[in-house]
């Protein structure tokens, strides 16, 4: 893993955007794996700026998102479909048919998983953006998830629902299940870019870097991937030497 320590969140977002701009410049029809959550918002803002400056176009870009809450429609303000539209897609020239996110409604969850997994089989993701949960989750692959899992329905860990309740009016409204790419799908991306910001992520980053590879800490699987870049701000890096 290549580790880059940025001074602050702005620099982290800038460094991440430069990696993606470099990729798109080289390969205008690149396939991007995207993530939701607070961490990549600054990256998406930078990409929107670059688009406005005509440095890059999303016209030929395809995207695949990591996950979606089960039971939330694309119009629900806490759905990841909605998040991606507001944070990125509505502001750039990506074609709607090039956007792929697991459906959170419309069929039984197992059917939704199978449908998304089929798409991933031919996706050929060039670069997958990841955040990391305090418990080491990537996507919604919670501790204990087998490394060979493909897209599946996950029961969200109590701490994940707790961490995400800030976006809902109460904990009861936080969905209990999500559809997520499995670790196997994530590991198939050619490159991985993991971002972590803030002191609350410092213990997870310490464990990622110094801990063993174990299903108890899902992000540790990334040590088996040949091309991972981790970008941290100083706070997230505060427990590593
Ligand atoms: P965050 O979420 O970016 O909102 O911290 C990351 C994650 O839980 O994967």
Q: How would you briefly describe this protein structure?
A:
This protein is α/β, with parallel strands linked by helices and 241 residues long.
Descriptive report:
This protein is an alpha/beta fold. Helix content is 30%, strand content 17%. The chain has a 7-stranded parallel beta sheet. A 3-stranded antiparallel beta sheet has the order 4-8-7, covered by helices on one side. Helix 1 crosses helix 2 (41-52). The chain binds 2-phosphoglycolic acid. Residues 37-39, 131-133, 137 line the site of 2-phosphoglycolic acid.
Overall body shape: globular
Instruction: Name the helix and strand elements from N-terminus to C-terminus, one letter apiece.
Output: EHEHEEHEHEEHEHEHE
Number of helices: 7
Class by SSE composition: alpha/beta
Task: Quote the distance from N terminus to C terminus.
Answer: 15 Å
Largest sheet: 7 strands, parallel
Q: Would you identify the regions where 5 or more consecutive residues have pLDDT less than 50?
A: none
Ligands present: 2-phosphoglycolic acid
> What is the residue-averaged pLDDT?
97
Alpha carbon gyration radius: 17 Å
| Number of E strands | 10
Give the percentage of residues in beta strands: 15-25%
The strand order across the widest sheet is 1-10-9-6-2-3-5
Q: Roughly how much helix do the residues carry, as a percent range?
A: 25-40%
